[in-house]
Write a structure and sequence with these properties.
- This protein has helices spanning 13-24, 37-44, 51-70, 84-90, 105-114; strands spanning 2-6, 27-30, 75-78, 96-100.
- It is an alpha/beta fold.
- The longest helix has 20 residues, at 51-70.
- It is 45% helix and 14% strand.
- The model has no long low-confidence stretch (mean pLDDT 88).
- A four-stranded parallel sheet has the order 2-3-1-4, with helices on both faces.
- It is built from five helices and four strands, in the order βαβααβαβα.
């Protein structure tokens, strides 16, 4: 089974996803690790990604999920996947389940402002 923990940047996807994976004894995948360098630089500069930017990234994630399902490897993926079309692209089998993390805008904005070592520019929260 694959569980995709999704939501806006700063909602806690990575934190919750890692804890869930550890509790279940499953592998953990971070969708940010699949972004091409150009996407990361664009977000670092505070420019939102377009669908055209995201489709190659989603394809790389889809390929990884298909490998995991084929190998019968359970995993938790932390991924924004905010649009239904993105989630449908990642639904590679009936063994893919989604968990939506959401929270108060002010709380998430505050968390983003205090986060260190991440490329996501806090100004992009409004674009999500």
């Amino acid at each position: 089974m694959i569980v995709i923990v999704f939501g806006v940047s700063g909602a806690g996807k990575t934190t919750i996803g890692k804890l869930l994976a550890e509790e279940l004894g499953w592998g953990f995948l971070e969708a940010d690790d699949f972004h091409p360098r150009t996407n990361i630089e664009k977000m670092r500069r505070g420019r939102p990604l377009t669908d055209e930017d995201r489709w190659p990234w989603l394809e790389r994630l889809r390929e990884q999920l298909m490998r995991s399902v084929a190998a019968k490897e359970n995993a938790v993926l932390a991924c924004s996947a905010l649009k239904r079309a993105y989630r449908e692209r990642l639904r590679v089998s009936d063994d893919v389940k989604f968990v939506f993390l959401r929270g108060d805008y002010a709380l998430i904005a505050e968390q983003l402002c205090h986060r260190r070592g991440h490329f996501m520019n806090p100004t992009l929260l409004k674009s999500q």
